[in-house]
Structure formats: C-alpha cells, structure tokens
Amino acid sequence: MDKEFFTPRTLGDAIGVSQSSLKRWADKGLLNVEKTAGGHRRIGMEEAMRFIRESGVTVVKPDLLGLGSEDLDVQEDELSSADRLYYALHSGDETRVRSLVLNQYLDGRPLYEIFDQDIQPAMARIGLLWHDDVSGITIEHRAHDICLQVLADLRFRLPRVFTKGIAIGAAVPGDSYTLPTAMVSTALRGEGFSAVNLGPNLPIEALLDEAKKVKPVIAWLSVSHLKKAHILRTEIKELARELREQNTFLVMGGSQLQKLRLDRDPYVLIGKNIHELVSISRGLVANNPQSIDSKGEIS
Q1: Which of 14, 39, 99, 186 sits 20 to 30 Å CA-CA off 282?
Q2: Fold type of domain 74-157
Q3: What band does 69 get if pLDDT is binned at 50, 70 and 90?
Q4: Is the dihedral of CA 260, 212, 297, 160 positive or negative?
C-alpha cells in the first residue's frame, strides 16, 4: 500500500480544531508535518493516528479519516465493546467491525486489551454457533476473514517505528488457526517490535531457519490446535536449545498449550494471553544487555 496523507484541513475537520491549531502543534513538535514538492503541508496517516491516540483529542468526523462512523442507538450503547463487536461480526458488517476496533485503539486502549477482551471473546461465541445450526460455520468463517482484514488495516495504520528489535512467530505444525498469531504480530508491532507473522501450520524447522537468518530477540509459537504432541514437544525442546545459542527467547501461548506439557526451560516463556506475551516481550528487551540498532537488530 502507498502511504496515505491528510491535508491539515481534513485532519482539523476530523478532530474539530482549526488549521492554525494544527500549525501551532506542529511548530511545537507535537505533530510531525511533511511538505510536498510544492510546499504544501501534509500529515501522514500513521502520524495522524499516533497524534490522536497520544494527545487524547476526540475524533468528531471519523469518516474523514476512513474510520467509519460509530453511531449507536440507545440499546446498543448499553452493550460492552465485546458484545458490540460480536453482533457486528455475526452480521458480517466489516465496516462496523473496523470502526469499532480502530476507534477503541484511538481512544487509547492497548491492542492486547482489544484482542484479549473483545476480539477473542467475540470469536469464541461465534465459534459455538455451529452447534445450533450449520449456518454457524459460514458465520464463523466470514467473521474470521473480517478480523484478518481489520488487523491488516490496523497494521498498515500503526507507526513504523521499531525500537525493540525483531520478533518472528507462527502457529505450530498442524494448527491452521491464522487469527491468534496475526493478533500477536499486530500487538507486538504496536509495542515497537519489527514483528513478522509467518502464519499457520509452520514446520518448526522453518521457524528455526528464519530465526538463524534474522536473529530475532523473540520467537513466538501459538498453539490453538494440537496434533502429535509427543513429536512437537521434542521439536520445541530442540528449537529452544538452538535459539538459546543465539540469545533468542521462545515465547509460547494458545488455548491448547497446556496439553503439550512442556518441560521447564528458562528460554521457553509462557503467556496465558496476548497481554502476558506482550509483557514478557517488553521485559526481555528491557533486561537484554545487548544493544539494538536502528534497524531493530541485535548488535
């Protein structure tokens, strides 16, 4: 995707302030403004999102920023954010789902909180619908695709400032669930990691091969579906040993992880949810004595 820009007037109208206020904030270094070849001021979408989130200004016209509207009737206003998301996903309203997620993010909620407390509970409810009717399968597949589209849009809007190093990860072999590892990648990007999601059903040797090439600070594995636990347990033990030699920590999580019954290893860290995984990752970087260069690589 090409980088998207807003004029000062568009951004000002979206957040209900004058162009002179934007200029004053830019002069104070609170808002980064770029100039075209013709000398016209423009604000990049990522910078606009950062400024709105960090300054706490209210978006009064979200449509101007491509965020969609979140007008609620009285009954829906009484619902939790997870319930609103569930009904939007159930009805297949991608525009509404995008609006709900992006506006929660702009209101200052951490990505891991949106994922743990809204998206995962909503998708868990939708995942039970097939017990009642075959149409539940269609609803779940459609909702899953909508979530992936919204995550891709969110990742595109996040600031591309990677100060905490490289992180790579995937779902384990036999695990075809794409959403959990995509949420982990997006949450880590929001924390300043150069996070690369290698997708579902990845062979352990493929993750190790990539880790040897890019030397990440963290490698993660998601376990939402478990096959051949005894084989996977052995492969993970060997993976952790190999990663340890290059000072890469392995972080694991997922609904089926407990069934894997891993041996204790100081280089294999367990996160019960995305919040814990993010907290572990932050701590590893903070306690890592090695320096991280401007490209996000360990030196």
Answers
A1: 99
A2: 1.10.1240
A3: low
A4: negative
Domain boundaries, the chain: 5-62, 74-157, 166-287
Q: Of 207, 135, 139, 130, whose CA–CA distance to 175 is shortest? A: 207
Classify residue 211 as exposed, middle or buried by CB count within 10 Å of its CB (0-12, 13-18, 19+). Answer: buried
CATH of domain 166-287: 3.40.50.280
Question: Is the Cβ–Cβ distance between 267 and 244 less than 8 Å?
Answer: yes
Q: b/e for 108-143, b at 16 or more Cβ within 10 A?
A: ebbbbbbbbbbbbbbbebbeebeeeeeebeebbebb
- Res. 294: pLDDT tops 50: no
Taking CA atoms, 6 is separated from 12, 15, 37, 101, 156, in Å, by 10, 12, 15, 21, 15
